[in-house]
Structures are given as structure tokens and as C-alpha cells.
């Protein structure tokens, strides 16, 4: 469903991504892991086109999405969440989700001006839709609250509800468990599994290896911008290389 | 919704009774009230750009001038009637808004502020420089009054009610707009542009649309202004000071609140009048009083920026959201 | 003809360049765009006029005016900029705009709406005295700007204080760590910029004029020059000043009524094509 073909990304002299080829098939949950600075978030940024790749292309359902504006990528069905959530502080919890609902996007300037009276029912429809997404993540009771007053864990869930509201076929999670306590993580797991069961393909960056192992069907490992491993969780677990990467290389030092 | 309706009705009542009180009870000319009407339209339209979308535009007065001059030129050079000068003038604002907005809105925060400031200055200089078209420093004169069919409206009262009808419409509509789905998307992009982009919001397109929309309103106000100005308009009325006044109104009234901006407009228009009267009482020269006015507003603006950059009514609005 | 334009343009170029340096200096030290810079020029001219009326020795007047305006700059920084710690860059811009309005109106109140002229500083010499075919006033203006720029450059490069200022402009946090106070540097930059502005104001008063509206016009041009060369980039400010000065001189000979629009238009071009300015300022 999603194909990354030969993507490289350079920042001046810094190599963030080098010649990355990978594929995520429809209906899978694929994990992405690697030490800090490996380029995982950069890869997500390139896939959604927040940053253009220096080389290479990304295809979704056979169609090239590299070069599209980020909001167009989202409308094609490829949606991401952020590591630091980034809720819309000026909006309430419910409104945060509302603006992501496609019907909201289709209500532009002209619709506000002319079908003046249809607007009420349209508003109600959008609100209801947004409510259902809040219910999925369990935040419905906080709907009218200002989004900045939520705890970090709740904001995380709000970010997921918002992403769901975009009606994604392909969801990119960027370290969803970061900053959450154990209870919140198990809730998160349930939510993600729920989403997967409804048919959404999931690509997830995680540092929480236990969580990744139990969720993902396949794991891709990045290091220093390159893809170095790919396989089932069991295979990855056995690879010695992982220890090397995460706990430091043993390099010959000439003293 | 109901609370807003009450606010709106009270506001409307005040607007309707004010001129009568001014004329027949305090015996005060209607000009300041008329000017306040224009400022309300300007401040409210700017509040959409600055408050809702968070784009700082320091050159909003330019569109007012563009609308006024276009209408004025259409009326004097081409002798077009009122019902044509208005739409053409508004259209010029739309076109200008698009041409200016497209490159400018790509700039980030304070480059945007600077660019819009300079646009304001450049249009003012243009009005002064293009003698043959705009009458240069002297401006345009012999501008006709508002004329609908055979009826010519020349009394201050008629001007007042015409302008304020539109002002009220603008206020109600923009307030409605700010709680609509588009308004929410604007607030979203105000909060976080990248995140908004990633939930499917066309950030640049939306910024441009609201900018053009606001410019259109400003230009429309300008076209009315051209016909209500006792027949003349001159560049000095559309200088940087105007744009600064408008942003002051928005800041004072609460950057996030349409009604607040309207309040801000009324305050900034009328308070100088009050001060002027006090100045008269002490036999001070008119220009001196104007300067004292400017100083006072400058100080108020600075204090606002230091202590509460969000404006007076913002706190109330946040809680009701 | 072309030489005439260049010579005339040079006079304005040095004026705009000095004002532009005022903008860039403050910006480089504190990331603040001080839109009241032009008013320092205005104050210089008006204060110069008042000092002239007190019959002080002529050669003292420019120094004293510059010093007084520099103090005003410090006062403004302490009173209006320093307290606004949490303000966003845009709020600071609005603050400096408000400051310029206050300065202008106060000046209009104190000195009235009249335009003042003071005689040339060389009035006691025979009229028409020239050095190398240039008017003495012209030499004074261009020369003083030139000399001030050189002194400023030396100050920034050779003195400890100057280097502290440059360090602060490159990395305020790093500077703080080594004991440089960005707040003090900001105050210093305000006083220098104000002093420079004041100097320009008093020097052009004999050739031009002095009134309370002067600041707006020159401030805008100087601002455009600073942005043109790269806000925060002092050599850039000089380049920008020259471009605008010469362009205006050329424009004046072709289409004089459009002269004043050249500077804003040039600045807009730069903002669209290369927002960081020709020589690349700081962000």
C-alpha cells in the first residue's frame, strides 16, 4: 500500500536518510525502530511531505504522493500523529477533532455565506462525527474543555482521535507511548488494536520495544538513516546487531 | 448562541439611538459616529486575519484606501453611478488582496508584519505620487454623494444609517463566521500550522482566502467612505497611522473576539473626541489635543502589549469557548 | 550628468546608510526591529535647533545633540522595551511603532508644528567656500557618516565592549554564559543607534530642515535600506543605504513625484525574493 523508493534526505552535510526502500502492505501493522537520530521521524516527515526528500519517491496505492502538499497527502488517506502531539490550543477538545473531519474541510467560505441556514445541521453533523471519535479514545466526557487543559496522556489520545477523524486508510504513529504511564500505555494499546481491526493499516515508530513486539507483525530497523534490518519481531529479537545499535558499538579504539 | 443574540441586539439598539441622542440631546455633530462605523468594519475585518488566523497585517488601511480611490476614480473620471462604483471598488480590494496576499502570506510571522507595514506605506506613497490618477497630495474632489436611483443621500443622518447598517451586518456576519467550521479551521492553523496541515487543512489557501475576504470588506468600506466624505478624499487619510489605528482597535478589543474588535473601534474613534472636548474646555489648540491623543493611545498600546497582548475581551471569550 | 546624480545620491546614501545601521545594530543585538529609529533623527534635528538658539559654540552642537538623543534611546529601552520580556517579536514591533508615535507627538507638542532651519555650520566662512568642488556642508554630512561608520567598525572589532556586542548578536545564550549581559548589550545598542540617528538629524538640519515629521520619512527609507542589505547585517545596511540613495537620485531626475516610492518597492522586492536581504541578515 505504501512504498518508499530510494528515499534520501540530506540537511547540508548531515545524512538523515540514505537510500531507504521499504513497503507496508494493506492491513499490516509495521513497526519502525532505531536509536535516537536514526531518521525515523524524518522518514515520517518525508512520507507526509512536511519535508521533501532529497532523492527518491513515496507511493501510496500505486500513486506518487511525493510532491503533494501535506494536506493533500492527508486527504489521500495517509495521516500522521506527532511525537509531541501538538493539539490546537485555541480550540476545545471537541473542536480539535471537528476540524479534522472531512465535512468540515468541505465547508468553505462560500458555504458559510450562502446556505446560511443549512449550516446549523451541517455543524451538528460534524459535531456528532467528532463525538464518535472522542468516544473511541475515551475522551468524550472532556469534549467542551479547552484542549490545553488536558493531561499529556489525554492530549495524546486527542491527537489520535484527531487523526482518526481524517478517515485514514494509513496511519503513521510517531512514538505514541512516549511520556505515558503503564496504565495509559495499555489503554493506548487497546485503542491501536481497535483501529487496526477496523481495517486501517498502521506504521508505528516506537521506543517501547515490548509494546512494539506485541503489536507489530513486522518490524523495520533504521540506524543512521539506513534500513539495516527487517523481519518479524522474533527474528529481530534474535539479531545480535540490535544490541550493538542500542547499546553502542564496539569499535576499535587506537589508544 | 443566545448570549450572542442578546449582545447583538443591545449593540444594535445603541447604534440606532445614538445619532438621535448626539444630535438632539448633546448637540454634537455626527461625524465621529460616522467615522466609528467605518472603523468598525475595518477593525472587525482585520480581526479575522489577526485574531482568528493569527496573521499580523499592519497594512490593512491600504485596502480601505484602494477601495476609496477606485470608487472615487470611477465616479469622477468615468462618471459611474453609485451602484457600480461600490462593486468595482470592492472588486479592486479583492484583486489587491489576492495580489498582495499571495506572496506576503508565504512569509513567516514578523516578516509578514513588516511586509504588510511596507505595503501600507507604499500604497500611501502611490496615492501621493500618481497625480494624474489620484490627484496626488491634494486628492480627489467632486466626489458624488450616495445616490440610489433618483434619491441622493447627503445628510449626515442618512450617511450614518447607511454606513452603520453595513457595519452591523459586518459585525454579525464575521462573528457568525468565527464560530463556523471555517473559523475553527482558522483557529487551528493559528494554533499550529504544521499540525493543521497534517489534518487536511489547506493552510496557505485558507490564509489567503481570509486575507482576501478581509481586504474585500475593507475596500467595500472604502467605497462607502468615498461617497460620504463631503466630496473629497486625500492620501493623508490613508497613511500608516490609519493601519496602526486599526491594529490598535483589534488589540484593545481582544485579538480573538469580533465584538471586541468592534468595541475597540468605537473606543478608539470616540475617546479622542471626548479628549478633544476636554481640550476645548481648557482652550487648547486642536492640533495639540490630537497630539496628546496620539500620545495617550501610544502609551495605552504599549501597556497592553506589555501586560496583556490579548486585549480586553479575550479572557471572557476564552471561557465561553 | 551621471556624476551629478552619483554625487547627490552619495549624500543621501550616507544618510540612509547611517540610519540603516541604527536599525541593524539594535536588531543584531536584541532581535528587535526598532521602528522608532527615524524619530531619533527627528529629535536630533530639533534638539540641534534648540541648542543653536542658546548660542553654544557651533562645533559642540552635533556632539551634544547626539548625546542627548542617545540618552533618550536608553530611557526608551528601559521604560518600554525591557519590561516587555514575554512579548512576541510582533508585539515588540507594535511597541516600537507606538513609541515612534509618542515621540513624534511629544515633539510636535514641544516644538510645535513649525519647520525649523538652522544656518550652515560654516556660516561664518565666506559663502560658496568649497573643498575640491564640494560644499562644506556636503563634506560634513558625508564625512561624518563615513567617520562614524569607521569608528563604529573599529569599536565593534577592536574594543572589548564591541566584541561583547558582536558575541551577543551571534549567540545571546552563549554570550550570557561567558558573562555578557544581553540586556546591557541591548541597552548599549539602543544608545549607539539613537546617538547615530541624532547625529544624522542635527547634521542635515542646516541643509535640509528640522520638524516633527522628519522621522517618519527618513525612518522608512532607512528601514528599507536595512532590510535591503539584510536586517542585522551592518555592512548590509551600508550597501542598502547606498542602493536606495543612488536609486532615489536617479529616480528624482526621471520621475520626481515617484521618488518616495522607490525605497518601499525595493524593500518589497527583497522581502519576496530574498527575505534575508542582499548580504543575508540574521533570522
UniProtKB/TrEMBL annotation, chain B:
The keyword Transmembrane helix applies. Keywords: Cell membrane, Membrane, Transmembrane, Transmembrane helix. The keyword Cell membrane applies. One of its GO terms (molecular function) is branched-chain amino acid transmembrane transporter activity. It holds the Pfam family BPD_transp_2. It is a multi-pass membrane protein. This is Branched-chain amino acid ABC transporter permease. The chain crosses the membrane at residues 9-27, 33-53, 58-76, 82-102, 109-127, 157-177, 210-234, 246-271, 292-314. InterPro entries: ABC_transp_permease (IPR001851), LivM-like (IPR043428). One of its GO terms (cellular component) is plasma membrane. It is found in: Cell membrane.
UniProtKB/TrEMBL annotation, chain C:
It is a multi-pass membrane protein. GO terms for molecular function: transmembrane transporter activity. Pfam families: BPD_transp_2. It comes from the Bacteria. Keywords: Amino-acid transport, Cell membrane, Membrane, Transmembrane, Transmembrane helix, Transport. GO terms for biological process: amino acid transport. One of its GO terms (cellular component) is plasma membrane. It is found in: Cell membrane. The chain crosses the membrane at residues 6-27, 34-52, 58-80, 92-111, 131-156, 187-208, 220-244, 256-273. Belongs to the binding-protein-dependent transport system permease family. LivHM subfamily. PANTHER family: ABC TRANSPORTER PERMEASE PROTEIN, BRANCHED-CHAIN AMINO ACID TRANSPORT SYSTEM PERMEASE PROTEIN LIVH. This is Branched-chain amino acid ABC transporter permease.
Amino acid at each position: 500500500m505504501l512504498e518508499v523508493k530510494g528515499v534520501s534526505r540530506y540537511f547540508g552535510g548531515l545524512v538523515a536518510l540514505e537510500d531507504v526502500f521499504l513497503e507496508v502492505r494493506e492491513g499490516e501493522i509495521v513497526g519502525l525502530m532505531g536509536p535516537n537520530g536514526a531518521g525515523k521521524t524524518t522518514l515520517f516527515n518525508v512520507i507526509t511531505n512536511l519535508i521533501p526528500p532529497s532523492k527518491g519517491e513515496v507511493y501510496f496505492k500505486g500513486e506518487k504522493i511525493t510532491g503533494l502538499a501535506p494536506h493533500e497527502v492527508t486527504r489521500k488517506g495517509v495521516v500522521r500523529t506527532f511525537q509531541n502531539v501538538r493539539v490546537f490550543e485555541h480550540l476545545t477538545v471537541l473542536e480539535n477533532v471537528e476540524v479534522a473531519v472531512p465535512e468540515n474541510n468541505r465547508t468553505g467560505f462560500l458555504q458559510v455565506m450562502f446556505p446560511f441556514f443549512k449550516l446549523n445541521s451541517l455543524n451538528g453533523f460534524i459535531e456528532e462525527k467528532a463525538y464518535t471519535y472522542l468516544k473511541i479514545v475515551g475522551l468524550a466526557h472532556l469534549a467542551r474543555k479547552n484542549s490545553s487543559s488536558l493531561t499529556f496522556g489525554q492530549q495524546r489520545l486527542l491527537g489520535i482521535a484527531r487523526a482518526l477523524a481524517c478517515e485514514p486508510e494509513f496511519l503513521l504513529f510517531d512514538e505514541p507511548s512516549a511520556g505515558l504511564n503503564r496504565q495509559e500505555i495499555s489503554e493506548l494499546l487497546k485503542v491501536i488494536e481497535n483501529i487496526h481491526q477496523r481495517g486501517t493499516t498502521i506504521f508505528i515508530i516506537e521506543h517501547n520495544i515490548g509494546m512494539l513486539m506485541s503489536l507489530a507483525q513486522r518490524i523495520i530497523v533504521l540506524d543512521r538513516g539506513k534500513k539495516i534490518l527487517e523481519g518479524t519481531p522474533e527474528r529481530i529479537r534474535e539479531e545480535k546487531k540490535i544490541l550493538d545499535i542500542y547499546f553502542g558499538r564496539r569499535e576499535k579504539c587506537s589508544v | 448562541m443566545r448570549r450572542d443574540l442578546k449582545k447583538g441586539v443591545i449593540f444594535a439598539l445603541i447604534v440606532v439611538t445614538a445619532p438621535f441622542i448626539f444630535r438632539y440631546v448633546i448637540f454634537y455633530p455626527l461625524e465621529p459616529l460616522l467615522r466609528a462605523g467605518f472603523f468598525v468594519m475595518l477593525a472587525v475585518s482585520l480581526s479575522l486575519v489577526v485574531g482568528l488566523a493569527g496573521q499580523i497585517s499592519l497594512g490593512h488601511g491600504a485596502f480601505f484606501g484602494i477601495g476609496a480611490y477606485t470608487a472615487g476614480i470611477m465616479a469622477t473620471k468615468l462618471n459611474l453611478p453609485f451602484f457600480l462604483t461600490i462593486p468595482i471598488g470592492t472588486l479592486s480590494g479583492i484583486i489587491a488582496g489576492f495580489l498582495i496576499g499571495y506572496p506576503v502570506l508565504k512569509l513567516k510571522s514578523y516578516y509578514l508584519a513588516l511586509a504588510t507595514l511596507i505595503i501600507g506605506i507604499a500604497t500611501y506613497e502611490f496615492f501621493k505620487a500618481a497625480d494624474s490618477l489620484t490627484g496626488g497630495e491634494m486628492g480627489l474632489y467632486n466626489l458624488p454623494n450616495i445616490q440610489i436611483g433618483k434619491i441622493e443621500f447627503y445628510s449626515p443622518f442618512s450617511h450614518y444609517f447607511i454606513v452603520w447598517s453595513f457595519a452591523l451586518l459586518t459585525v454579525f456576519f464575521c462573528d457568525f463566521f468565527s464560530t463556523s467550521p471555517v473559523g475553527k479551521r482558522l483557529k487551528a492553523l493559528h494554533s499550529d500550522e504544521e499540525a493543521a496541515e497534517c489534518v487536511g487543512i489547506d493552510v496557505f489557501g485558507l490564509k489567503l482566502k481570509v486575507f482576501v475576504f478581509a481586504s474585500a470588506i475593507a475596500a467595500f468600506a472604502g467605497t462607502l467612505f468615498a461617497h460620504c466624505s463631503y466630496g473629497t478624499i486625500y492620501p493623508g487619510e490613508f497613511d500608516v497611522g490609519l493601519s496602526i489605528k486599526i491594529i490598535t482597535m483589534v488589540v484593545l478589543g481582544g485579538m480573538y473576539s469580533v465584538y471586541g474588535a468592534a468595541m475597540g473601534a468605537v473606543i478608539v474613534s470616540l475617546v479622542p473626541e471626548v479628549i478633544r472636548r476636554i481640550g476645548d474646555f481648557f482652550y487648547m489648540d486642536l492640533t495639540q489635543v490630537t497630539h496628546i491623543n496620539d500620545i495617550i493611545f501610544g502609551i495605552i498600546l504599549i501597556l497592553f502589549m506589555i501586560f496583556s497582548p490579548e486585549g480586553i475581551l479575550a479572557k471572557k471569550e476564552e471561557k465561553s469557548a | 550628468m551621471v556624476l551629478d546624480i552619483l554625487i547627490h545620491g552619495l549624500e543621501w546614501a550616507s544618510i540612509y546608510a547611517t540610519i540603516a545601521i541604527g536599525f541593524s545594530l539594535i536588531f543584531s543585538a536584541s532581535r528587535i526591529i526598532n521602528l522608532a529609529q527615524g524619530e531619533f533623527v527627528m529629535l536630533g534635528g530639533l534638539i540641534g535647533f534648540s541648542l543653536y538658539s542658546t548660542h553654544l559654540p557651533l562645533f559642540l552642537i552635533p556632539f551634544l545633540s547626539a548625546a542627548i538623543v542617545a540618552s533618550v534611546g536608553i530611557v526608551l529601552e528601559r521604560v518600554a522595551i525591557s519590561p516587555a520580556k514575554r512579548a512576541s517579536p510582533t508585539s515588540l514591533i507594535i511597541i516600537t511603532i507606538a513609541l515612534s508615535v509618542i515621540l513624534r507627538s511629544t515633539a510636535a507638542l514641544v516644538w510645535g508644528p513649525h519647520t525649523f532651519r538652522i544656518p550652515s555650520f560654516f556660516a561664518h566662512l565666506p559663502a560658496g567656500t568649497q573643498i575640491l568642488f564640494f560644499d562644506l556642508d556636503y563634506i560634513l554630512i558625508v564625512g561624518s557618516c563615513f567617520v562614524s561608520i569607521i569608528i563604529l567598525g573599529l569599536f565593534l572589532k577592536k574594543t572589548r565592549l564591541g566584541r561583547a556586542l558582536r558575541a551577543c548578536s551571534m549567540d545571546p545564550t552563549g554570550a550570557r554564559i561567558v558573562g555578557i549581559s544581553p540586556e546591557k548589550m541591548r541597552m548599549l545598542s539602543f544608545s549607539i543607534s539613537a546617538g547615530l540617528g541624532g547625529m544624522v538629524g542635527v547634521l542635515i538640519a542646516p541643509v535640509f530642515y528640522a520638524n516633527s515629521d522628519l522621522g517618519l520619512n527618513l525612518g522608512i527609507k532607512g528601514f528599507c535600506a536595512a532590510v535591503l542589505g539584510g536586517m542585522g547585517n551592518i555592512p548590509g545596511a551600508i550597501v542598502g543605504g547606498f542602493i536606495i540613495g543612488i536609486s532615489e537620485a536617479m529616480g528624482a531626475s526621471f520621475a520626481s513625484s515617484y521618488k518616495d516610492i522607490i525605497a518601499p518597492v525595493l524593500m518589497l522586492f527583497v522581502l519576496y525574493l530574498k527575505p534575508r536581504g542582499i548580504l543575508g541578515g540574521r533570522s
